[in-house]
Design brief:
With about 500 residues, the chain is α/β, with parallel strands linked by helices. Helices cover about 35% and strands about 15% of the residues. It is built from 19 helices and 19 strands. The structure holds cobalamin and iron/sulfur cluster. Cobalamin (B12) binds next to helix 1, strand 3, strand 4, helix 4 and helix 6.
Length: about 500
């Protein structure tokens, strides 16, 4: 059987979200590679997004299938990319996956005739079936149009039971050097699934309510591989790494036993941490945990089925501090029941717990209970313009709080509500210079440089001609990236051609 040549696309999303390699696409690529499919990745997140670039890639690589990932906020751009791909070659099979389309499958096919197949929930083996040419009607977990143009939804695909049998994520297909220049952390999973059912989240609907775990040794093997690639930090992208202490202890013990020294961070719930597990995590290199605190008002927490108490939050922050693990408390404003008073409760609480915190705004994503039962929760959905679902602006209102109230809180937050001073070890910090260089394809478009002596100084001079960044910053960064092997040059006709490695 000859598999279809496949191009996977990582679409752009706004700079306000820190760029990391999406784990879902890494795994889809990994499975295809493992089963001998010809596969490549076009990463438009850490490069300039242009239609010419997509066209060039299609003409050079000649894929049969194009697969793209997205969440709600970058669904519009992902769809636009597939539309463009179809216009370049209408024979291309276009596939889209991710949480947004999983719960909006039929609507997606209806509004985007250029999308052939929607992959729902876990997509590794679904995509393998597609590229291997299996009859679409026999592939579980997709939505497609039959030859008469009728929309078809196949059966639910069972979640992958034995995660340890999964081929490894295909990091080598992604432009690692650019992610490293951006100081991105390695993204990896120790398990999948979450047993909770918070009404604003589709995490447990995507990964299942029964958590599945990977063998700690394999997890730490992957950490070692990521460190060998040059990543300095790791973020566990698990919904809830701290759920199963036996498993987490085993992962930590394995890290400690191998003597690995690196910083890592993870998502946690305040009711799944204890002084003991936090101490062990710290010993294994954990520097940050991100707690989903959501609100400073107990009634709201109860209403959104968060199943935590403010008292537990205070305690969890305190024991993390005692263990030497820093806390980022994550809040959502605009939740059901929100009023001006509850917004004040949340602002006060965020400052009371004396730790780092961040505010997001409720975005009622497709598939979430808060969207499906918006009336019951007293939420008025103001728009379904998906590009606005970045959780950084109000797209809903409650009886007691409108967009103006929510935006006022956000404004105060960005003006610097009382926050601890910034911490250089905070995860997801950004280097504006690196971002400018990668998102503008600056290195790729420098052209040949006349060597004057030291190639690195020549590159710095050239960048200074077009960059507004201070020379010291450019110089320090370029030297570091060159020493780390992220930037390389070739000599062509006695001219320097610089490139990301
Ligand atoms: C880790 C994580 C992050 C990380 C990393 C995100 C990333 N790009 O990898 C960080 C912290 C950076 C992050 C940021 C954001 N996140 Co987030 N995040 C998660 C989390 C907890 C796990 C994601 C994950 O790695 N899952 C494991 C992998 C294996 O699954 P997967 O990504 O879903 O991929 C599988 C399938 O979707 C499918 N698939 C995906 N793409 C493709 C493509 C093809 C071609 C195919 C065939 C299949 C396929 O197959 C994959 C493998 O099985 C999820 C919750 C969850 N469990 O889904 C939320 C979640 C994805 N995040 C969410 C949101 C909203 C965001 C933000 C917008 C934050 C914000 N402002 O509120 C940003 C958006 C950044 C972005 N563009 O991705 C929402 C998305 C909801 C939605 N419909 O949009 C989720 C579902 C949580 C929620 N609120 O319900 N997030
Ligand atoms: S918010 Fe966290 S705990 Fe709640 S369902 Fe989502 S992943 Fe699970």
């Amino acid at each position: 059987m000859v598999s279809k040549r496949t191009l996977l696309i990582n679409p752009p999303y706004p700079f306000s979200e820190f760029p990391i390699i999406p784990v879902g696409l890494l795994y889809v690529a990994g499975v295809l590679v493992h089963y001998g499919v010809e596969v490549d990745v076009l990463d438009l997140l850490v490069s300039k997004y242009s239609k010419e670039k997509i066209k060039r890639k299609i003409e050079e690589y000649k894929p049969d299938v194009i697969g793209i990932t997205c969440v709600t906020m970058n669904y519009p751009v992902a769809s636009e990319i597939l539309k463009y791909c179809k216009s370049v070659n209408k024979k291309l099979i276009t596939v889209i996956g991710g949480p947004h389309v999983t719960f909006n499958a039929e609507e997606t096919l209806k509004e985007a005739p250029w999308i052939d197949i929607v992959v729902r929930r876990e997509g590794e083996f679904t995509m393998l079936d597609i590229v291997n040419g299996k009859k679409l009607a026999d592939i579980d977990g997709i939505a497609y149009r039959d030859k008469d143009g009728n929309m078809k939804l196949t059966g639910e695909r069972a979640l992958i039971e034995k995660l340890d049998e999964m081929p490894p994520p295909a990091r080598h297909l992604f432009p690692i050097s650019k992610y490293l220049a951006l100081d991105a952390h390695a993204s990896l999973l120790a398990g999948r699934g979450c047993p909770f059912n918070c009404i604003f989240c589709v995490g447990s609907k995507m990964g299942g309510r029964k958590a599945r775990y990977r063998n700690p040794r394999l997890v730490v093997d992957e950490i070692e591989e990521s460190l060998a690639l040059g990543f300095k930090e790791v973020n566990f992208e698990d919904d809830l790494l701290t759920l199963n202490h036996k498993h987490l202890n085993a992962v930590c013990d394995e890290i400690i036993a191998r003597g690995l020294k690196f910083n890592w961070s993870a998502f946690a719930r305040v009711d799944t941490v204890t002084p003991g597990i936090l101490k062990k995590m710290r010993e294994a290199g954990c520097t940050w945990v991100s707690y989903g605190v959501e609100s400073g008002n107990q009634q709201i927490l109860d209403l959104v089925k968060k199943k935590i108490t403010l008292e537990k939050v205070r305690y969890a922050v305190q024991i993390a501090k005692e263990a030497g693990v820093k806390v980022l408390a994550s809040f959502i404003i605009g939740l059901p029941g929100e009023t001006r008073e509850t917004l004040k409760d949340t602002m006060d609480f965020a400052q009371e717990i004396q730790t780092f915190y961040g505010f997001h705004v409720l975005a009622p994503f497709p598939g979430s209970e808060v969207r499906e039962e918006a009336d019951k929760y007293g939420i008025e959905i103001l728009t379904s313009d998906w590009a606005k679902y970045d959780a950084n602006r109000a797209v809903t209102r409650t009886k007691g709080a409108g967009p103006e109230d929510i935006n006022a809180v956000l404004h105060k937050y960005f003006q610097g509500l009382k926050q601890p001073p910034p911490d250089p070890s905070q995860p997801r910090r950004r280097s504006p210079l690196a971002w400018d260089l990668v998102s503008g394809d600056i290195i790729e478009n420098l052209g040949p440089i006349e060597p004057k002596g030291d190639p690195v100084e020549d590159l710095i001079d050239k960048i200074m001609e077009i960059s507004l960044h201070p020379r010291q910053r450019v110089s320090d960064s370029i030297k570091r990236w060159y020493t780390d092997g992220l930037l390389k040059y070739d000599l062509k006709n006695s001219r320097l051609i610089w490139r990301w490695s």
